[in-house]
Recover the amino acids of this structure.
């Protein structure tokens, strides 16, 4: 598909409802080896539960005090919300951060490849509308979660 | 397709744990935003995957969406690092453009 065909499809795609099929045909996502390690169906899910399920294969995360998620209660600028996830769990396989009311809740995920990595991730994310930020930690084959509410006064995507 | 993606990394050993702080330059566009003047949708342009390694050993595979804030900040911690070890980041954005940056643990 040449660039102008791609552009036409892209513009067409951006007017219709944003589904995975439209996104792919609009050339927003190219199914190359670049995508191999990026969990497309999880990142494009529009509900937190679906995103968790697509990322981890299950939605069975138990609320756990061994996972903490810290973010400001009120974010003046939803485009830059600092969030820190910590966990004392052993055998952490991955950590993912979801923003409940973002168009696509899954913001980022971190796969731990070495047992020397500490249960700690600190980053900054966009929060589109006030809602819960949820951290899901996969450890020892099970899912554990924690959440914290963030109120945004100025929305996340500009 | 930001070819000017840069990363500043600080990797500091304190006790037995290395704390890494990364600040990258990148617009991190979700692809859902419209330009206010032209009304056109700004195409998605974000760092998509990034591998963090130390002393040649892979530590973390990071996956980002455009919902990570512009000019991404990331901090991670790990044990078993020594001063002088090379800490390296290798990233690829959603257009397939790759880059890398490294620093020595201090």
């Amino acid at each position: 598909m040449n660039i102008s065909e791609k552009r036409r499809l892209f513009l067409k795609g951006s007017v219709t409802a944003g589904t995975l099929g439209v996104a792919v045909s609009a050339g927003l996502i190219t199914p190359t080896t670049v995508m191999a390690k990026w969990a497309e169906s999880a990142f494009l899910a529009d509900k937190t539960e679906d995103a968790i399920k697509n990322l981890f294969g299950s939605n069975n995360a138990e609320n756990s005090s061994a996972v903490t998620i810290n973010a400001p209660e009120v974010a003046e600028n939803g485009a830059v919300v600092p969030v820190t996830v910590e966990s004392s769990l052993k055998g952490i396989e991955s950590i993912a951060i979801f923003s409940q009311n973002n168009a696509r809740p899954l913001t980022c995920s971190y796969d731990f490849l070495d047992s020397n990595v500490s249960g700690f991730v600190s980053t900054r994310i966009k929060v589109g509308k006030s809602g819960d930020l949820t951290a899901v930690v996969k450890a020892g084959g099970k899912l554990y979660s924690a959440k914290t509410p963030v109120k945004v006064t100025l929305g996340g995507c500009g | 397709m930001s070819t000017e993606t840069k990363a500043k990394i600080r990797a500091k050993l304190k006790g037995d744990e290395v704390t890494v702080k990364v600040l990258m330059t990148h617009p991190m566009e979700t692809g859902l935003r419209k330009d206010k003047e032209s009304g056109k949708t700004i195409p998605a342009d974000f760092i998509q995957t990034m591998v963090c390694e130390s002393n040649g050993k892979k530590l973390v595979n990071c996956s980002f969406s455009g919902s990570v804030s512009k000019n991404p900040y990331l901090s991670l911690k790990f044990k078993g690092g020594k001063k002088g070890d090379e800490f390296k980041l290798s990233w690829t954005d959603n257009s397939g453009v790759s880059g890398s940056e490294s620093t020595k643990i201090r």
